[in-house]
Amino acid sequence: MQRKAVVLYSSGLDSTTCMAIARADGFTPYAISFSYGQRHSFELTVARQNAKAIGAAEHLVVDFDLRLMGGSALTADIDVPKEGVGSDIPVTYVPARNTIFLSFALGWAEVLGASDIYIGVNALDYSGYPDCRPEYIQAYETMANLATKAGVEGTSKFKIHAPLISMTKADIIRRGVELGVDYGLTHSCYDPTPEGLSCGQCDSCRLRLKGFAEAGLTDPLEYVD
User: Fold this and answer.
1) Contact present, 60 and 108 (Cβ < 8 Å)
2) Less CB within 10 Å around the terminal CB: N or C of the chain?
């Protein structure tokens, strides 16, 4: 019987590759997505359509509203920057987002009897978000084993897997292709059209397109430009 792993899944390039890696590692993936009031909610349409097609045994969508707090171009009336990836933490950073996401994933993992959680964070070709760094992932794993019944009683030792954390976007794409990922079933844009066309100019689109170019491959998604 395969072991279960909870995989944070947005339908993006990274999280989809991460799910494929979890499968390759011998786990049965349980995908968890989040409807949190994000402006790019089209990602959830793609996630709902494709989670099981790309290998999830179950797909859970957790619904809450971070627009109540705002503070991000993804959850408030703030323009998504289109000038390229800079050196500062951008306004597309959502306060505490990965901490919130991992908390839901940890709770579901404990209920499922799973000890493993996969998250597709990256600290190389990324926008500079503080909750995508190796030290954050290590600290969260320590906390997870202190804050759960399974961890305290020793019935389970939680492991947070971040297999993409030190990979370039091109390397991530190459790995996904090796594992048979269909990147036509993914969505990465922060500011898509109502029909779901990617803008091609936001940080997420730029990093994605850069990765495909460096990998010598063509992105199968349609873009406005």
Assistant:
1) yes
2) N
Q: Which residues of 103-127 are buried (b: 16+ CB within 10 A; e: fewer)?
A: ebbbebbbebebbbbbbbbbbebbb
DSSP-based three-state secondary structure for 167: coil
CATH 3.40.50.620 fits 3-186, yes or no: yes
- C-beta neighbour count of 74 within 10 angstroms: 23
Strand partners, 6: 30, 117
Nearest Cα neighbor of 186 from 168, 198, 203, 169 is 198
**What residue ranges do the domains of the chain occupy?**
3-186
The pair of structure tokens assigned to 46 is 């793609």
- Percent of the chain residues topping a pLDDT of 90: 87
This model's pTM is above 0.85: yes
